[in-house]
């Protein structure tokens, strides 16, 4: 990476309030110019709205109105946290990247959302300071922790064991955990073992690597999670262009379905939900 490109990326990251839009949603968001997630929020109201609607249907079906605590691990600028804040009593949003954290906090303040607790740290299986590879300015959600050590474009970020970061009452009232940490999901789950055992929340995670996916599934199975579901559009296995036409012509909507992770190939799912009990999927899908 040249010094000039580094300066340009830093300038883009610091231009936090350059994108300010209501989009099509009820909330206002500050984002980063040129960032993929910020652009989608600015034009569509929320990023990955079909995923958010799927999670919302799950929570409405399984959690009392405005009840419980949700963890948003890898909160970015607050897309998921602000959406879910309208459904539950409290959201605890973890974001280790300093620029993204400032945007997360700003977006909560701008929208007068007072039930999102923003924490500028990551979760892992132990307390540590880890090296973090800076994302490119066009997609600030792609940064990741690395064991390779310091290098160009790396930061040092603090992580905590999830169980230690939660109060007794928050751990007891946990109803859902969303994890999107670009390859660190397994470590996050290992650090939340006690809370997952105690409260049995649904666990929502996204991972692209088969080894990481199966590792997460194994940890969850040992904790009593026997049921796995994915939320996505029909025709996901079709070529991209054909998928778009089918969604338009068939007016298809995303839906939850039961899946067997042991037979999955890389990149099969947009989002995976793990539960200790069988979920009323037909009822959930009727709410989407």
Could you characterize what this model shows?
The protein is α/β, with parallel strands linked by helices. It has one domain: Rossmann fold (3-Layer(aba) Sandwich), CATH 3.40.50. The protein is 37% helix and 22% strand. The chain contains twelve helices and 14 strands. The strands form three sheets. It has an eight-stranded mixed sheet, sandwiched between helices. α5 links the parallel β4 and β5. α8 packs parallel to α10. It starts with a helix and ends with a helix.
Features:
globular, eight-stranded mixed β-sheet, 288 residues, Rossmann fold, alpha/beta
CATH topology: Rossmann fold
Number of strands: 14
* Global mean pLDDT: 82
Helix content: 25-40%
Structural class call reads: alpha/beta
Beta fraction of the residues? 15-25%
Number of helical elements:
12
Rg, nearest Å:
18 Å
Question: Span from first to last CA?
Answer: 44 Å
Residue stretches low in confidence (pLDDT < 50, at least 5 long) are 6-10, 12-24
SSE pattern: HEEHHEHEHEEEEEHHEHHEHEHEEH
The CATH architecture would be: 3-Layer(aba) Sandwich
Strand order of the largest sheet: 5-4-3-10-11-14-12-13
CATH superfamily label: Vaccinia Virus protein VP39
Q: Please, how many domains? A: 1
Specify the overall morphology.
globular
Oligomeric nature of the chains:
single chain
């Amino acid at each position: 990476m040249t010094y000039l490109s580094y300066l340009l990326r830093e300038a883009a990251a610091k231009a936090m309030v350059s994108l300010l839009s209501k989009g099509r949603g009820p909330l206002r968001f500050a984002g980063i110019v040129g960032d993929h997630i910020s652009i989608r929020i600015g034009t569509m109201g929320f990023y990955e709205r079909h995923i958010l609607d799927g999670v919302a249907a799950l929570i409405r079906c399984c959690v009392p109105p405005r009840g419980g605590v949700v963890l948003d691990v890898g909160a970015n600028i607050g897309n998921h946290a602000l959406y879910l804040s309208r459904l539950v009593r409290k959201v605890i949003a973890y974001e280790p990247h300093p620029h993204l954290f400032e945007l997360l906090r700003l977006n909560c303040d701008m929208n007068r959302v007072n039930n999102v607790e923003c924490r500028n740290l990551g979760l892992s299986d132990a307390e540590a300071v880890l090296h973090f590879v800076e994302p490119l300015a066009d997609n600030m959600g792609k940064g990741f922790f690395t064991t390779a050590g310091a290098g160009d474009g790396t930061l040092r970020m603090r992580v905590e064991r999830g169980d230690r970061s939660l109060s007794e009452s928050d751990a007891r009232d946990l109803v859902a955990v969303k994890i999107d940490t670009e390859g660190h999901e397994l470590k996050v789950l290992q650090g939340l073992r006690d809370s997952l055992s105690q409260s049995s929340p649904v666990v929502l995670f996204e991972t692209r690597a088969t080894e990481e996916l199966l590792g997460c599934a194994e940890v969850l199975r040992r904790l009593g999670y026997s049921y796995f579901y994915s939320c996505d559009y029909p025709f996901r296995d079709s070529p991209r262009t054909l998928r778009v036409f089918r969604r338009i012509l068939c007016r298809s909507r995303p839906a939850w379905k039961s899946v067997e992770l042991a037979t999955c190939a890389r990149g099969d799912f947009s989002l995976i939900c793990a539960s200790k009990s069988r979920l009323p999927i037909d009822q959930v899908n009727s709410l989407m």
